[in-house]
Recover the amino acids of this structure.
């Protein structure tokens, strides 16, 4: 396979694994848009249906399951929230399909359609793999990444051949929910999808945002396996009968005692309440303002005595207060008998009583109350937007004939919560519009989306050069292929850590791969070229790092380590390089935990067996065999003059270990007074001078903690390494990102530290040598090569990094070419001597 063919194979849309059906195989009762979605979902075999409230989501699911089960000669299962089965039973009978509710497989026959609750499947009472096809109704139950429900469902359905999900409100403020659906359906691994489309915050785990340059691709990819439908006209059909009535939101603010700040967990009194109210304090605030909110609710009900209302609440205290304040109201709640609860829902849906009180988590999904109710009261507001929007649309949905009124009651101290809710609402509307535009442009035809995605393959080479350097905006494979045999004196690079990051919207990006195996398939095109262009006997220094695998992705329930450095080692050796050793670079365990949450102190105290250790970085040293292996000297040796390259320097280089000196152990008082930066350096220096004692190390840290001087954001008491092949003192901050930040430019995701590059270049190359970096980034390697009187060359795919890096190279070129006072003095002295 050629490199171009490899890149083309990266264009991955959702697979088609279902059945082609004709129009006459779909129940004629279905509306045109419903029938179109049914055909699309049946053809795909694993699809998501995100249809707006009232568009017939339940009817679509029933028909999809009926057709697939018949074609595959098996039985189908609908998994749904509590209190929704009566809606499916009603729609099934309308379609001429009988759907039986079951709590165990013994109640099911060999064929037919069945339904059960999420809890039944999650708790193991029904194995979904006993069914040929399954659909999850209101699949937003999978929203909580890492929750018991999601973790269980992700693996329980792996053996189900045909899978579908349906919900009206995929969460707008967390795109990751859509990734979870893809993982459940088997479209793409959850971890892989997160890496492909989202940029990570290197200082905080799970703080992910969609790459701006990947946004279009993300929505096109979604369009290949999910349908977002807001109205029939999005698919080119008539909206007749689907026009929603006017919608009105009325806010009611009640007074709260903001002058009483209360007492915090440390016993400190506050003069005023914190407006940035959290989940715990929000519950207390709801209890403190309950009487005022109930009074506001009574005023709303009194103003419309003949209207039916659904009253949404969150706390049991609120439910009891509603029952007391509204005689004749009916409540449904979690400990209630399931049959009694569902009958109350059916009766309210049929208009048999006037006021229903419920929590959104119980009756906010799947229930249709629009036939007899057009007014709702939210007795309070919370942080869960999905619960809110789902509850709202129990009455604001297609087939509603009256103007809908939504009354939101909140406390004065909850204004920030309200603003957050409104912000999420706006985000929801933006997401809906994004998908509507793509659906209108591409419809249900995935081929047009594939054509658009394919356009991101390839790059037009741009070259820049100066005195002693040459760089190209190009695919590194293509750039290496254009270089002459044995033309490079040294290669220094930091390869992408498999599919951990993506740097560009191009399919040429090595980070845009499915797995380690796929990544090394692309490396198979590059590594032989690196061997070819490197001079015989010279060094290829490869910086890399192991990857953390999270338990909610692997299913192991705990973080584990992917030995990526070892895979890199064996890959490179397989292409003819000789392995010369590995340099270990210590990293900050506290900073790493802030990024991954895998080494938490609290979790370690609960169970130390699930904790690993901090993950260092590595420089892998490889050598291209020289032409003459009898003594194995390089064809063009890196020779050193002993006058300049002393025995002392050789010992430090040979051990890859630099030591600092210290006088004595500083007292905790002295250490605490230093401040974090000086503290870190002073402690490390002391550990290198003295015999290391673990218990002393711990006592110093505990003393500092008592004084409030032990930082939680980085490791201030890191011991110096006595391992001969460990570099402990690499300055993590000395990168070109420092200048990027100062200039307000985009930071590189994985900048290479100057210390690492300088030590490698000095040891393994001569002045005047050409040092090459195939993954140039901001061109740190050629930048430092110029500084050290070498020549530099690099390739970089990201055009932004390429342009920023040129500026640094031009600045370094000016710096090294500008004579100093001593240069001028020496020149004049030599001229005078002549």
């Amino acid at each position: 396979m050629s490199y171009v063919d490899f890149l083309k194979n990266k264009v991955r849309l959702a697979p088609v694994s279902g059945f082609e059906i004709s129009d006459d195989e779909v129940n004629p009762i279905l509306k045109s848009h419903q029938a179109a979605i049914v055909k699309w979902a049946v053809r795909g075999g694993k699809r998501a249906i995100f249809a707006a409230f009232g568009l017939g989501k339940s009817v679509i699911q029933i028909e999809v399951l009926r057709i697939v089960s018949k074609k595959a000669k098996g039985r189908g299962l609908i998994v749904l929230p509590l209190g929704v089965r009566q809606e499916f039973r009603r729609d099934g009978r309308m379609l001429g399909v009988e759907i039986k509710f079951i709590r165990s497989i013994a109640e099911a026959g060999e064929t037919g359609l069945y339904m059960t609750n999420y809890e039944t499947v999650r708790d193991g009472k029904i194995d979904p793999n006993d069914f040929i096809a399954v659909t999850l109704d209101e699949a937003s139950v999978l929203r909580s990444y890492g929750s018991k429900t999601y973790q269980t469902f992700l693996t329980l359905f792996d053996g189900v051949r045909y899978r579908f999900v349906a919900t009206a409100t995929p969460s707008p403020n967390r795109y990751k929910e859509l990734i979870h659906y893809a993982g459940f359906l088997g479209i793409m691994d959850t971890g892989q999808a997160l890496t492909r489309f989202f940029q990570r915050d290197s200082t905080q785990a799970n703080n992910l945002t969609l790459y701006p340059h990947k946004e279009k691709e993300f929505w096109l990819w979604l369009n290949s396996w999910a349908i977002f439908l807001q109205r029939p006209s999005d698919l080119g059909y008539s909206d007749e009968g689907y026009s929603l009535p006017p919608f009105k939101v009325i806010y009611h603010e009640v007074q709260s005692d903001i002058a009483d700040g209360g007492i915090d967990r440390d016993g400190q009194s506050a003069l005023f309440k914190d407006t940035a109210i959290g989940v715990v304090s929000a519950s207390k605030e709801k209890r403190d303002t309950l009487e005022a909110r109930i009074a506001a609710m009574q005023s709303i009900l009194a103003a419309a005595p003949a209207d039916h209302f659904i009253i949404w609440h969150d706390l049991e205290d609120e439910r009891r207060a509603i029952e007391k304040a509204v005689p004749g109201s009916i409540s449904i709640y979690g400990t209630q008998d399931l049959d009694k609860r569902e009958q109350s829902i059916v009766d309210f849906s049929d208009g048999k009583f006037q006021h229903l009180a419920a929590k959104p988590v119980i009756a906010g999904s799947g229930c249709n109350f629009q036939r007899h109710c057009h007014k709702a009261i939210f007795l309070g507001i919370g942080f869960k937007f999905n619960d809110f929007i789902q509850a709202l649309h129990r009455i604001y949905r297609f087939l509603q004939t009256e103007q809908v009124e939504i009354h939101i009651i909140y406390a004065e101290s909850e204004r920030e919560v309200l603003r957050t809710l409104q912000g999420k609402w706006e985000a929801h509307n933006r997401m809906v519009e994004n998908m509507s535009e793509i659906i209108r442009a591409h419809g249900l035809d995935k081929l047009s989306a594939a054509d658009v995605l394919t356009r991101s393959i390839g790059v037009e080479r741009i070259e820049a050069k100066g005195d002693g350097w040459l760089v190209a905006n190009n695919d590194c494979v293509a750039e290496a292929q254009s270089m002459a045999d044995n033309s490079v004196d040294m290669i220094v690079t930091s390869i992408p850590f498999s599919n951990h990051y993506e740097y560009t919207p191009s399919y040429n990006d090595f980070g845009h791969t499915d797995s380690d195996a796929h990544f090394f398939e692309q490396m198979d095109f590059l590594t032989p070229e690196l061997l070819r262009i490197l001079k015989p006997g010279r060094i290829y220094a490869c910086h890399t790092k192991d990857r953390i695998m999270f338990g909610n992705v692997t299913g192991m329930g705990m973080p584990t380590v992917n030995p990526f450095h070892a895979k890199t080692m064996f890959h490179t050796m397989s292409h003819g390089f000789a392995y010369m050793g590995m340099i270990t670079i210590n990293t900050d365990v506290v900073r790493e935990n802030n990024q991954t949450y895998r080494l938490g102190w609290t979790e370690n105290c609960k169970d130390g067996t699930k904790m690993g250790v901090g993950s260092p970085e590595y420089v892998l040293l490889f050598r291209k065999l020289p032409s003459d292996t009898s003594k194995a000297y390089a064809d063009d040796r890196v020779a050193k003059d002993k006058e300049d390259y002393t025995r002392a320097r050789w010992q430090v280089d040979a051990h890859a270990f630099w030591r600092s000196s210290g006088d004595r152990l500083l007292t905790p008082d002295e250490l605490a007074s230093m401040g974090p930066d000086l503290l870190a350096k002073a402690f490390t220096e002391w550990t290198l001078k003295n015999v290391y004692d673990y218990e002393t190390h711990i006592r110093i840290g505990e003393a500092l903690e008592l004084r409030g001087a032990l930082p939680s954001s980085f490791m201030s008491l890191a011991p110096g390494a006595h391992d001969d092949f460990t570099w402990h003192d690499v300055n993590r901050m000395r990168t070109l990102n420092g200048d990027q930040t100062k200039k307000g430019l985009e930071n590189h995701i994985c900048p290479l530290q100057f210390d690492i590059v300088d030590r490698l270049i000095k040891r393994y190359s001569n002045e005047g040598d050409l040092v090459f970096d195939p993954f140039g980034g901001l061109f740190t390697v050629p930048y430092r090569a110029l500084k050290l009187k070498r020549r530099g060359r690099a390739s970089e795919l990201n055009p932004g990094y390429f342009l920023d890096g040129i500026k640094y190279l031009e600045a370094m070129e000016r710096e090294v070419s500008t004579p100093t006072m001593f240069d001028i003095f020496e020149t004049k002295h030599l001229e005078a001597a002549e």
Confidence is low (pLDDT under 50) at residues 268-277, 657-665, 729-734, 737-749. Residues 640-727 form one domain. The two ends are 65 Å apart (CA to CA).
